[in-house]
Structure formats: structure tokens, C-alpha cells
Design brief:
Number of strands: 10
Radius of gyration: 16 Å
CATH class: Alpha Beta
Strand order of the largest sheet: 1-2-4-3-5-6-7-8
Helix content: 25-40%
Number of helices: 6
CATH topology: Rossmann fold
Shape: globular
Length: about 240
Amino acid sequence: MIVSKEIIYQGPGGPFNAVQYYDDAVSDYRPGVLVAHTIRGQTDFEREKAKALARLGYVALAIDMYGQGRSSMKSEEARAWMDTLNNDRHLLRERILSAVDKLRSLPEVDHDFVGGIGYCFGGKCVLDLARSGINMSGVVSFHGVYDAPDLPSRGRIVTPILLCHGWEDPLATPEETLGLIKELNSRKATWQLEAFSQTGHAFTNEKADNRSGGMFYSKRASEASWSSMIHFFKQRFGR
């Protein structure tokens, strides 16, 4: 049975509220995957993704990048929290690294096999995680944001990266996408790009319907990118 546990952990500017999901019928250690949230903060959307990962046999941790479990459907409020981290990428990096430390410490997790996924702002978070130089099994960005942090490079990116991207995403234009690839190549990263035509931002969110603004759900892209993630982690975790 899939069980959930609320976890409060300390980190830079914490406390932080996370939710862990795993199958309690499995007794062995298993890979862990963190789930980084959108601009809204941790919501049912991320928790459902974490639960789905638990059904695949992983220990999943829906994390909290804003602190104290803050989330909001009010754009202005959520944007203020996000911009605090957008304007301080060192703090963003330290918070996501702290979340990895918590994931690795969970008693059900094989700490040698950990990964991360992120949506929208969370995609930026897991990319900054890889940029930090950390050695993880892999990270997956779903319709992420690609601007590079104004931080010193830490040499080669050793964590493999899967980018699931809508080619018509107004928050990650073709030029910005190619700029990210150039950055990853310059740091000798192992990366894969799965780009979907006629697809914008937020394509995994069934509630996204702002087609004129380039933010809308795509069943085709959502299902295909999830399948790609499954294959990616099977390769990276070796199980």
C-alpha cells in the first residue's frame, strides 16, 4: 500500500514541509526521487506526482522550496516567493541541496541512487541542482525555465539530465533552449532533450487552459514525457 508521511526538516531559511510517499509492502532499500514544485508551491499536483513515483517502486519526496509549507493560488503572492529565489540563486541552490540531503537520509532510500524531477519553477530548481556539481542518478525537467544562475561554475555537470520541453513555451523560447544546451555542452553534461511540437508551457497540468498565453495542457506531451522519465530512471537506477 502507498503510504504518506509529512516531514518537517531544517534548511536555509527553514523549516520546510515535505511529504514522503512509498510502498510499505517493499522491505528493500530503493531509489529516491524528489519532486520540486511549480510557482504555486507544493500542492496536490506535486503530491500526486510523488504518489505515482511511489507506485513505480521509488521513495518520493514532494519538497518545499518556499519554507513553512507555503503555497498559494494567488499569482502575486506566489510570484513574490519565487522571485526571492530567482534573485538569489545561491539560496535556491542551497535549499534544493538541503532537500536532497533529507531525501538521502530517509530510512527506505538507497542513498546511492537518488534523482529529482521538477515542474516549471521546479524544473529550474532541479537544473540548478545538476549545475551545482552534485553526483546524482539523474534529474528531469518538465517545462522548466532555463536561465543560468549568476554563480561560479563548479566544473563538469556529472548528473545526467532529461529535458521535457514544449517547443512553443513562451518561458523557454527556442533561443533560450539552445542557450541551455550550449551551457550543458560547455560543462560536458550528459543530456537528453525531448521537445514537443505545438506544445507550450505547463503541458503536464490538466487545469492549464491559457492557450493564447502559451500555457495549456497537452495529453500527448504529458503522457509521452512521463514515459520518457520512466525509461530514463530505469536506465539511471539500473532497476
